[in-house]
Design a protein that fits this description.
By secondary structure, the chain is α+β, with helices and mostly antiparallel strands. The chain contains 27 helices and ten strands. The radius of gyration is 35 Å and the shape is elongated.
C-alpha cells in the first residue's frame, strides 16, 4: 500500500511539474557531458600534443562540475519547496488520518528518490547521445577523417553524475523534510497566509528606479571605457554596481507598476487589464530580488554564449595557413636526413623538400664600451629615414630621447614597428641564404629572388611580427623606392653598401616553432658563407604532404601516418599537427567551459522564473474563483494569465539584453570576443541574444500551459462557459 502511494504521488508530481522534471533531466545530461569530456574524440586527439594542458582542462572541468552542483542544489531546494507548498493540504490530511511525521518524511524521500532515478535514467541517455553528437560534430568541424570515431561510454562520468545528483537531492529533501516536521497539522491544512505586499511610497520607488539606473549607467561606463583596466577593485566595482543597479531598478519598477494600471481609465475598465497588472506587480514586488538575480543570470548567459560561440566560429581559422608552408620540419644531420626522406617508406609523404640553413652574422671581434660586440651592420641611414616617416607625436619624443624603448604592436604605425624589430635584430642579425628561401618560394608558386651581389632582402617572420601585411609595407617601400631612384644605399655590411629588395613574400620558415625569430637578412649564398658565424649555424629539412595525397585522403590522415614513420627514425622533428593541435586546444578550452556555464545559467534562470510564477499562481488561485463569481469567463482569465507570464519573463529578459549588449560590445572592442566584420557587431550580438530569447520562450509557453491546467482544476460555477 505504501509503495503504491509513493509510486502514484511521484507520477502525479512529475506530471504536474513537468518543467522542473525536464530541468532535472537536462542537468543530469549536462553533468554527464562535462564529466565525459575526456572520452570525446577531439580530447583524445589533443592528448597526443597537449597532454599537460588537457589534464589541466579536465581538472578544471571537475571544478566546473562542483560549481554546477552547487548552483543546482539551490534550484532543487527552491523547486522542492514549491512542491511541498502546493501539497501542504495533502500532507495535513495524511497526518489527520494517523500517519506519523517520520513516515511522511520517509514517503517524501522515497518519492524524491523515484523521481531522481527516472531523471538520472533519462538524463544519462540524453547526455550520452548528446556527447556523441558533440564529439562527431567537433571532429567534423576540425577536419573530416581526423579521428576514427568509436562509441565511448564513460563509467567514471556516470558514477560521479549519479553520486553528485543524488547527494544534492537528498540534502535538499532532508532540509525541507525537517521544515515539514516542525509544522503543525493546522498550518499544513490552511497553508501559510500570503504576506502583505509592501508597495512603499511613490517617491521612494521612483528613487529606487533612478538610483538603479545611475548605478547601471556607471557599470556600463566602466565596462565600455575602462575594460582594458579590468582587474581587482575595478572589476569588482563594475559587477557590484551592475548587480545593485539591477536589483534597485527592478524593485522600484515593480512597485511602481500600480501607477501604470491607473494611467488609462478606459483600458482599466476593459476586460481584466487592471487585474493582470496588479498580479504582475505583486509577483515582481514580492520577489524583486529573485527577479533581479534571474536577470543577472540571463545577462551572464547571453555574454558567455556569445563568447563561446565566437570561439567556435574561430574554427574556420584552424585551416588558415596563409603564413604556414611546410607540414614537417626535421632537425638533424642533413647528410642523414636527405637519404631518409628519399627512402621508400617516406617518399610517398614528401613533396617540396627544402634545406633551410641559417645562422647569426659574425661580429668584428671587438667589444664596445658597454661590452656588446661591435656589429658589421650599419643601418643608420635606414633608421634615419624610418624616424622621419614617423607621425610627429612619435617622432619628437624619439628624437628628444624621451622615448627610449617601444613595443611592437598591430596598433603602432608601420615605421615604429620596423624600428622596434630592426633595433632588436640588426646588431647580430640572422642570415638566410638565398637558395633556402627560394626553395620556400618555389613551394608556394612564387618566383625566386635572384639577388644581385650587392643586394639583400629583409625578412620579417609573420608568426611573430604583429603586422597585418608584411608583404606590402607602404612606408618601407616608399623609402626603398626613393633610395633606389637616388642611387642611395641605406644599409652596409662589413663596409659594403647594399641595396634592399622591397616587397618579397613572407612565410613561416618551419612547420611550427623550432625557429623563433622576428627578422633576418636574406643574402646571396656566397655572402652567407662569408659572413655566417659557424658556431650559430643550424639547418633544417622541411617538406610538405603531396597535394595529390591530400586530395585523396585529406590532410590529417597522411600527416599522422608520416608522423608515425618519422617517430621511428629517431630524428627530432616538429609538425603542423602540433600547431594545429595547440590552436584547436585553445578553441576547445575557450568554448566548452563558457558555453556550458552559459547554458547552465540560462536553465537555472528560466526554471526559477517558471517556478516562481507557478508558486504565485498556486497562492492566488482563489482570486480566479472569485473572478468567475463576478462573471469572468474562462478564456478571459487564461488570456490574463498569459499576459502575466509574458510580463514576468520579459521584465528580467529586457534588462538582461541591454546589459548583455553592453558587455558584448566591450568584449568585441577589446578583442575578447573576435568578429572580423565590425558593421555586423550589433546584428551578431542580437543573434546571440535571440538564442537565449528562444529558450526563454520555450519555458514561457510551458509555464502558460501549466497555468492553464491549474485554472482548469479550479472549482467553477456551472455556467462558467
Amino acid at each position: 500500500m505504501f509503495s503504491r502511494l509513493v509510486f502514484r504521488n511521484a507520477k502525479r508530481s512529475r506530471k504536474e511539474n513537468a518543467i522542473y522534471f525536464a530541468t532535472l533531466v537536462t542537468a543530469v545530461a549536462s553533468f554527464y557531458i562535462i564529466l565525459s569530456l575526456g572520452k570525446q574524440d577531439v580530447i583524445i586527439f589533443l592528448r597526443e600534443f597537449e597532454s599537460d594542458a588537457i589534464d589541466k582542462l579536465l581538472a578544471e572541468m571537475r571544478i566546473v562540475y562542483l560549481f554546477a552542483l552547487f548552483l543546482l542544489f539551490f534550484l532543487v531546494l527552491f523547486a522542492n519547496r514549491y512542491q511541498l507548498n502546493r501539497r501542504s493540504k495533502e500532507f495535513g490530511l495524511y497526518l489527520m488520518l494517523g500517519m506519523r511525521k517520520e513516515r511522511l518524511i520517509v514517503q517524501l524521500l522515497a518519492e524524491g528518490l523515484m523521481t531522481s532515478i527516472l531523471a538520472l535514467a533519462g538524463g544519462l541517455l540524453v547526455g550520452g547521445f548528446l556527447a556523441e553528437i558533440i564529439s562527431l560534430t567537433v571532429s567534423k568541424l576540425v577536419g573530416q577523417g581526423i579521428i576514427g570515431h568509436q562509441f565511448s561510454l564513460s563509467v567514471e562520468a556516470i558514477v560521479f553524475t549519479i553520486l553528485g545528483f543524488l547527494l544534492i537531492q537528498f540534502i535538499a529533501l532532508v532540509m525541507l523534510g525537517g521544515r515539514l516536521f516542525q509544522q503543525e497539522v493546522h498550518q499544513l491544512l490552511y497553508e501559510q497566509m500570503d504576506k502583505k505586499t509592501d508597495m512603499g511610497h511613490v517617491k521612494g520607488n521612483a528613487l529606487h528606479v533612478g538610483l538603479g539606473s545611475v548605478l547601471l549607467g556607471v557599470a556600463y561606463w566602466i565596462v565600455l571605457y575602462r575594460f582594458a583596466d579590468f582587474g581587482g577593485l575595478l572589476l569588482f566595482a563594475a559587477l557590484l554596481f551592475g548587480s545593485l543597479g539591477t536589483i534597485l531598478f527592478i524593485r522600484g519598477f515593480g512597485k511602481l507598476l500600480g501607477m501604470w494600471a491607473s494611467l488609462s481609465k478606459r483600458k482599466s475598465m476593459k476586460g481584466l487589464h487592471t487585474f493582470t497588472l496588479r498580479q504582475f506587480q505583486e509577483n515582481v514586488a514580492n520577489r524583486s530580488t529573485a527577479v533581479a538575480v534571474t536577470s543577472i543570470l540571463l545577462t551572464l548567459s547571453i555574454i558567455l554564449i556569445a563568447n563561446g560561440a565566437s570561439t567556435i566560429l574561430s574554427l574556420d581559422s584552424l585551416y588558415n595557413r596563409d603564413s604556414s608552408v611546410y607540414d614537417f620540419t626535421i632537425h638533424g644531420d642533413s647528410q642523414k636526413v636527405e637519404p631518409f626522406l628519399a627512402s621508400e617508406k617516406m617518399r610517398p609523404y614528401v613533396e617540396d623538400s627544402n634545406l633551410l640553413e641559417m645562422g647569426k652574422i659574425n661580429d668584428q671581434g671587438e667589444r664596445a664600451e658597454d661590452g656588446m660586440p661591435l656589429s658589421l651592420v650599419d643601418w643608420s641611414k635606414l633608421k634615419e629615414q624610418l624616424i622621419l616617416a614617423l607621425p610627429s607625436h612619435y617622432k619628437e619624443p624619439l628624437l628628444s630621447g624621451e622615448m627610449q624603448s617601444y613595443d611592437i604592436s598591430s596598433e603602432n604605425p608601420e615605421a615604429l614597428n620596423l624600428l622596434g624589430v630592426l633595433e632588436m635584430d640588426t646588431t647580430t642579425p640572422y642570415l638566410i641564404p638565398e637558395s633556402s628561401y627560394n626553395g620556400l618560394l618555389t613551394a608556394i608558386g612564387e618566383q625566386p629572388l635572384n639577388l644581385d651581389s650587392d643586394e639583400i632582402a629583409l625578412y620579417f617572420n609573420p608568426d611573430f611580427v604583429p603586422m597585418e601585411n608584411l608583404e606590402r609595407m607602404p612606408v618601407l617601400e616608399s623609402i626603398l623606392d626613393k633610395a633606389a631612384k637616388e642611387g642611395q644605399r641605406l644599409l652596409s655590411i662589413d663596409n659594403q653598401d647594399l641595396f634592399i629588395r622591397p616587397s618579397i613574400p613572407m612565410r613561416g620558415l618551419v612547420a611550427d616553432r623550432s625557429v623563433e625569430i622576428f627578422s633576418a637578412f636574406i643574402v646571396s649564398d656566397r655572402m652567407f658563407e662569408q659572413l655566417v658565424n659557424k658556431e650559430t649555424y643550424v639547418s633544417y629539412w622541411n617538406f610538405r604532404i603531396p597535394q595529390k595525397l591530400q586530395e585523396q585522403q585529406g590532410l590529417m590522415k597522411p600527416l599522422m601516418e608520416a608522423r608515425d614513420v618519422l617517430t621511428t627514425s629517431g630524428f627530432p622533428f616538429e609538425s603542423y599537427l602540433q600547431n594545429f593541435g595547440r590552436r584547436l586546444f585553445y578553441v576547445v578550452a575557450g568554448s566548452y567551459t563558457v558555453l556550458y556555464m552559459g547554458f547552465l545559467f540560462l536553465i537555472i534562470a528560466c526554471t526559477v522564473l517558471a517556478l516562481q510564477f507557478l508558486t504565485q499562481m498556486k497562492q492566488t488561485g482563489g482570486r480566479y474563483v472569485t473572478l468567475s463569481m463576478l462573471g469572468a469567463k474562462r478564456d478571459q482569465m487564461k488570456k490574463s494569465m498569459h499576459k502575466q507570464v509574458l510580463c514576468a519573463f520579459m521584465l528580467p529578459m529586457s534588462l538582461a539584453c541591454v546589459s548583455a549588449a553592453v558587455g558584448i560590445r566591450a568584449m568585441i572592442s577589446f578583442v575578447v570576443i573576435r568578429f572580423e566584420d565590425d558593421p555586423l557587431l550589433y546584428p551578431i550580438a542580437f543573434a546571440f541574444a535571440c538564442i537565449v530569447i528562444a529558450t526563454v520562450a520555450v519555458y514561457g509557453v510551458a509555464v502558460a500551459r501549466s497555468a492553464d491546467h491549474e485554472i482548469d482544476k479550479l472549482r467553477w460555477k456551472p455556467n462558467i462557459d
